[in-house]
Design brief:
Layout lengths: L1 H10 L15 H5 L24
């Protein structure tokens, strides 16, 4: 995570917005690097298309 935070600090412009998804209690780690919870204003969503499912 320290390497990711360093990349963000070096490469993301001041006007940039970085989001990530946290499983379980991982948000506690991310908070140590300045990330803040966004719920209930926004929530993460996902979609997984499994092999063999109809198109």
């Amino acid at each position: 995570m320290a390497e990711t935070a360093g990349f963000i600090a070096r490469e993301v412009p001041a006007s940039g917005y970085v989001s990530l998804l946290a499983d379980g209690q991982a948000h506690r780690l991310y908070q140590q690097f300045g990330f803040q919870l966004t719920a209930p204003a926004s929530v993460g969503m996902g979609f997984s298309k499994t092999t063999g499912s109809p198109d």
